[in-house]
Structure formats: C-alpha cells, structure tokens
C-alpha cells in the first residue's frame, strides 16, 4: 500500500479526513451545488445520497449537509460519517460516494485501499449515477450480479420518469435483477412501465399481484395505457379478460364518459348489442348501433375507427 492509500485508510479509522477531501481539490462550485439541488428537487426532495445517509449512516439531516457550502462543511460531513454508530463498511460506502464528487480515479483508489467489496462499490456507483441523472451508467452498475437490491421503488420511479425510454429501462432492470416488487409503489410503477410496452405483459403482472389489489391495479392499467397513447384504446377493447376482470373493466369504462367509445367496441366484440347501445346512449348516439343484418360490417368499421381515431368512432 502506498503512502496516499495508507493515509486514506487511516483517515477513515481515526476521523482525520483532510487527506481524503483536500481543500485544493474542493469540487463544489456554485454550478455543481445548483445541479445537485436541482436533482434533489426532481427526485421528490430526496437524493439517493440522502436515503443512504439516513438509513446507512444514521444522519437524518443530510439534506442540510449535502452539498457542502465550503471546505469546513465537507470536513464536518465526512467527520459525521466517519463517526456514525454504524459498521466500518457502511462508512466506507458513504465516504466513497463523496470521493466520487472529487475524482473518479481517487475514488477508485480509495475503494481499493479500504477493500470495499465490488458489489458495494458498484451499488454506490449506480445510485451516484442516478443522483447525477446518468442513467446508462446507473443501469450498468445496478444490474451487476450480487449488487444489493434496495430502494427498488425509487429506482424504478427515477428510471421511468427521467431516463430515455424509461419504460424499457424499468423492464430491463427488473428482468436483470429479478427484483421482487413487494411494495405498492414498486408494483404500480412497474404496471405503469409495462402499460407503455405491452398490455398483455402488464395484464399478466397484474394477475400475479395480491388478490386484494388486482381490481385496483387492473383499473390503473387501463388508465396508464390510455394516458400513454390514445391508440391503446383498440387494445383495451380487445384485452382477453376473465369474467371478473371484464366486470371490473366495463364498470370503469362505464364510469368514465371519455371511455364510452372503448366500451362500445368491447361490447360489440363480445356480441353484447344492448351493452353497446347503452354505451352509445351515454353519448346520444344509440341510433348508430344497428341490430340488423348489417351489424357485422358496422363492427368492423367501429373497430377500425377505434384504432385510427379513438375519440370519433361514430
């Protein structure tokens, strides 16, 4: 171990952290501070650093401490981390995060000097990249084998809201990590993502959810899909549903006048002329739903119209 590495390791253990965060390399310019604060605002006022500081280092006021305002402030923050009532590995993780603000090469040397396990280093690299909105880098590190799966709901939400092709990134993350989506927030975000990519995949996931939330999630699937693209109206009208699912979806379509056209086509496709007429009546167009011999031609016309112009099928 060279002298620099030895000083870094000793600094972590003794609380003398000046060698880790030298004033000559102080990175928190006004622009850097504003960028960090902007990221915090976009992430619902909680950076991943804030979560780690609270949950890992027992520092509850991280939002006031990071980004630091001056050299004294970064030394105080590092001292708080180094003297937190947690194990040394967690301290190393937090100090490594701060080192990344200074210099990636120095941060790597620091991680090697304290023998930070690769999975932990990559996890910090991943959440650091999320805080910086560098999503390709974040996905690379967070899907690395053996990386811990924590803050899954927030990771999914961040990818979905801000990453390019966020829905696809969410799907890749879940597939690569085999993430268990246990929280309501994580499940809803995943349904939201799948509804943009494949309604059948979204429906399959909804069916796998706890029984008490399936009906609610099914309604969310419909709303998410239609908000993502009006062209999804045709797919909603043709989803292969069970009797219970059919009851839930039709009730939701009936309750929302904006969904009347979808309900009309769905009822017609199921051979329910009376239901289609009732849906048309809600728009004063019941006379346009034929019960005569020409209805098959009309069904095809309606289905085509729903695909092309969902708002004006009659």
Describe the structure.
The structure is a single chain. The protein is mostly helical and 314 residues long. The chain folds into three domains: 1-135, no CATH class; 149-225; 230-314, no CATH class. The protein is 68% helix and 0% strand. The chain is built from 19 helices and no strands. The protein has helices at residues 3-14, 30-42, 48-55, 62-65, 71-82, 88-102, 104-113, 118-131, 135-142, 152-162, 166-177, 184-197, 199-208, 211-228, 232-237, 243-255, 260-269, 273-281, 295-308. α6 (88-102) runs antiparallel to α7, α10 packs antiparallel against α11 and α13 (199-208) packs antiparallel against α14. The protein is elongated. The termini are far apart. 37% of the residues are buried.
Strand content: under 5%
- The overall pLDDT average reads 86
Q: From N to C, what is the helix and strand string?
A: HHHHHHHHHHHHHHHHHHH
Q: How many separate domains?
A: 3
**Oligomerization category of the chains in this entry:** single chain
Summed up, the helix count is 19
Instruction: Please tell me what the overall shape is.
Output: elongated
**Sheet with the most strands?**
none
Helix content: 55-70%
Rg, rounded, reads 27 Å
Low-confidence stretches: none
Give the number of DSSP strands.
0
The class by helix and strand makeup works out as mainly alpha
Distance between the termini: 78 Å
């Amino acid at each position: 171990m060279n002298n620099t590495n030895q000083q870094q390791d000793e600094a972590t253990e003794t609380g003398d952290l000046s060698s880790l965060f030298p004033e000559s390399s102080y990175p928190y310019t006004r622009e850097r501070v504003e960028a960090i604060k902007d990221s915090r605002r976009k992430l619902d006022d909680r950076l991943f650093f804030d979560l780690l500081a609270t949950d890992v280092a027992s520092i509850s006021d991280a939002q006031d401490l990071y980004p630091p305002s001056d050299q004294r402030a970064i030394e105080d923050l590092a001292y708080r981390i180094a003297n937190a009532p947690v194990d040394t590995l967690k301290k190393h993780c937090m100090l490594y995060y701060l080192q990344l603000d200074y210099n990636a090469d120095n941060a790597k040397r620091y991680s090697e000097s304290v023998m930070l396990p690769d999975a932990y280093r990559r996890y910090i690299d991943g959440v650091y990249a999320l805080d910086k909105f560098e999503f390709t880098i974040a996905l690379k590190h967070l899907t690395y084998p053996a990386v811990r799966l924590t803050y899954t709901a927030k990771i999914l939400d961040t990818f979905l809201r801000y990453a390019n092709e966020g829905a696809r990134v969410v799907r890749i993350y879940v597939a690569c990590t085999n993430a268990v989506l246990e929280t309501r927030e994580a499940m809803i975000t995943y349904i939201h993502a799948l509804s943009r990519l494949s309604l059948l995949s979204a429906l399959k996931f909804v069916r796998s959810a706890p029984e008490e939330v399936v009906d609610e999630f099914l309604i969310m699937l419909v709303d998410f899909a239609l908000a993502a693209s009006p062209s999804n109206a045709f797919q909603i009208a043709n989803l292969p549903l069970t009797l219970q699912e059919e009851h839930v979806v039709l009730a939701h379509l009936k309750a929302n006048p904006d969904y009347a056209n979808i309900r009309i086509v769905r009822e017609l496709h199921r051979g329910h002329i009376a239901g289609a007429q009732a849906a048309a009546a809600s728009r004063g167009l019941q006379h346009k739903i034929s019960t005569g011999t020409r209805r098959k031609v009309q069904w095809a016309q309606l289905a085509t119209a729903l695909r092309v112009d969902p708002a004006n099928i009659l």
